[in-house]
Write a structure and sequence with these properties.
mainly alpha
Length: 336
């Protein structure tokens, strides 16, 4: 049972507001269709309100805002039309995000409102393709172990995305999720991006002697500096492998903690580690996710490589990706 919120709206208040919002829409249906429409309305509304009560009951108060009511109207109307479970779950996720956002109008709230209108037009294959394009272009701030654990979670998405057709790509452009550029303006393939975006992930190990030689040549005497440099590595055996997956992560960390004087040392350590060959990269990744090999080969084609995400397509891909990885990804991570 969802109780009332102190000094605010309760479940029954919000349910009444939701009913009023959809009253005119519901009246359009004939008697038999009305019964099914009413059932879908109740399912959707109850699911939204239950999720809100679990996250933060105070969010129910946002239903007094006209913009929120309009967003809810669009989302509920879409689910009433389709009755599709896949669509319902994605719409609920977007409504929750809309309510958790700023009360004032922002670019993000406008993107979410547009995404609510887009979701019913997407299939699992097209949404998987958006999520995979985002995944290939993000720079995840995680370590090697966590990234290795992410890859198997993405397998179903990679396989579904590989089932997309030229018509799917054209449709994503038509509805405004992507722009299409072919020839010189097309981007690198998903496979190329995945095998080249994370430079440290594809670095081989260095020896402890190499590490000591570099730190001694730079006269690292400060204990905190030395410990920071040591923390960049893990020790699977006797040698040292970079713990993080990209140089950008380390450079951002150096900037944040005011240790940019260590960047030449870090650059020197990076140059000591050999980069895997393309064959070695593929053996490494396909050893973790063998199902990716055929799927990535299918995705290396002009209709996929021509796609460049618009903000709404990026946002939808990020929401899908956050759900798959159980990892909250902010939109600004894509636009760094």
């Amino acid at each position: 049972q969802i109780g009332t919120v102190n000094s605010g709206l309760g479940y029954s208040d919000v349910k009444e507001i939701c009913t009023d919002i959809l009253r005119t829409e519901m009246e359009r249906y004939a008697s038999k269709a009305f019964d099914e429409a009413e059932r879908r309305f109740n399912v959707f509304t109850d699911n939204v309100l239950q999720r809100l009560s679990e996250i933060d009951g105070k969010l129910l108060n946002r239903f007094e805002e006209p913009a929120v009511q309009m967003s809810f109207h669009e989302a509920t109307k879409s689910y009433i039309r389709s009755g599709d479970e896949f669509t319902k779950e994605n719409l609920i996720d977007l409504i929750i995000e809309r309510l958790r956002g700023a009360e004032t109008s922002t670019t993000l709230s406008a993107v979410i409102d547009e995404a609510i209108q887009m979701v019913p037009k997407l299939t699992e294959s097209t949404l998987s393709l958006l999520a995979l394009i985002v995944f290939s272009q993000l720079n995840f701030p995680c370590d090697r172990k966590n990234f290795e654990q992410m890859l198997p979670k993405m397998t179903e998405t990679v396989v579904k995305a590989s089932e997309s057709t030229p018509l799917d790509s054209a449709y994503l452009q038509q509805i405004g999720c992507c722009m299409g550029f072919k020839g010189l303006l097309s981007r690198q393939s998903i496979k190329t991006l995945l095998f080249n975006s994370y430079d440290l992930f594809y670095k081989k190990s260095i020896t402890l002697d190499m590490f000591n030689s570099v730190t001694q040549s730079h006269a690292i005497g400060d204990t905190h500096d030395f410990m920071f440099l040591i923390s960049l590595f893990e020790y699977p055996e006797s040698d040292m492998m970079f713990r993080y997956i990209s140089s950008r992560q380390v450079e951002n960390a150096l900037q944040e903690i005011g240790k940019m004087h260590l960047k030449p040392v870090f650059d020197n350590l990076v140059s000591c580690a050999a980069t895997m060959s393309q064959e070695e990269k593929e053996a490494y990744v396909y050893g973790l996710v063998p199902e990716w090999k055929d799927s990535l080969a299918k995705l290396d084609n002009p209709h996929v490589n021509s796609l460049n995400l618009n903000p709404v397509g990026c946002y939808l891909g990020i929401r899908k990706l956050s759900s798959i990885l159980d990892y909250e990804i902010p939109l600004n991570l894509f636009y760094q």
